[in-house]
Amino acid sequence: MTYDILGRGPLDYVPCTYGTSKLVFRGPKRVLTDPYVAFIGGTTTFGKFIQQPFPLLVEHQTGVTSVNFGQANAGLDVFSHEPCILEAAKEARVTVLEVLGAINTSNAYYRVHPRRNDRFLRPERQLQHLYPDVDFSQFNFVRHMLRHLYHADARQFSTLQKDIQALWMLQMRELLPHLSPEVVLIRFGGGEFAGRWMEEGSGGAAMVTDSMLDELGGSVSAVVDVSVDRGDPKPLGAGMVFDMMEQPAARAVHSPAVHNAASQALRPVLDRLM
């Protein structure tokens, strides 16, 4: 399980577990003694290929223990079914929740892998009814499958997208009360990428719009946006560890500069909330 989640690359993520959860997290393992900040999120929070991901940088800057509950390739599904992790987040002074894409969750149209939520498992009848001519056996990843459906029939896709967004809002409203009283949402890339998820090389929280976050504004303490340059290819080097086989995947993650920007943006917010 550890290798399935963390990979066999040269960077030692010091894998650890918490409580009864079977999920493997990035270490070193922290003692959950007040005060601490819980970080919940996907690949960026976990810090794939990054020597010092933003939760660790925050710990260095503030002196407050940061517990990294990030999971590579995670959507909201991973955490919604982990009461042990939610309990740990509930006891934190602040929970920093990465805004995760709406597409990586099981819904009325398709199923995703229970841990690697970017993996497409199978379509449901409702999706097969919308797209009766599509061979779904050709897809392994949710984003690839949805791109194909978007280009196959954009009109039908609008129905699918609205339902996916509505489910994401419902999941967030159900998740937030289980976290600490102070919750900070952190979004990478901003709202401009929410509607461009179908483009090759696009990132950000797919299908999560500014208006969706605005609706959640009253339920969280703050929303932090971190700018991401989607222009030139990302420079690889200082602050990243990967082998030659991992280079394409390393180019797809946010750079150490983005992690540094995230920690700088979070610091004044956490100083205020702690």
What would your notes on this structure say?
This protein is of the alpha/beta class and 274 residues long. It has a single domain, classed as Rossmann fold (3-Layer(aba) Sandwich), CATH 3.40.50. It is built from eleven helices and seven strands. The strands form two sheets. The chain has a five-stranded parallel sheet with strand order 2-1-3-6-7, with helices on both faces. Strands 4-5 form a two-stranded antiparallel ribbon. β6, α9 and β7 form a beta-alpha-beta unit. The chain is globular, with a radius of gyration of 18 Å. The two termini are 35 Å apart. The N terminus is likely disordered.
Keywords for this structure?
single chain; 274 residues; alpha/beta; Rossmann fold; 7 strands
User: Ranges with pLDDT <50 over ≥5 residues?
Assistant: 1-5
**Integer count of domains:** 1
The total count of helices amounts to 11
In what order do the strands lie side by side in the largest sheet?
A: 2-1-3-6-7
Order of helices and strands: HEHHEHHEEEHHHEHEHH
CATH architecture: 3-Layer(aba) Sandwich
Which shape, going by the Cα principal axes?
A: globular
* CATH C-level label: Alpha Beta
The share of residues in helices is: 25-40%
Examine the coordinates and then state which fold CATH places here, giving the name of the CATH topology: Rossmann fold
For the sheet with most strands, the description reads: 5 strands, parallel
Fourth-level CATH superfamily = SGNH hydrolase
Distance between the termini: 35 Å
> Could you tell me the mean pLDDT?
90
Broad structural category: alpha/beta
What portion of residues belong to β-strands? 5-15%
Give me the Rg, rounded: 18 Å
Strand tally is 7
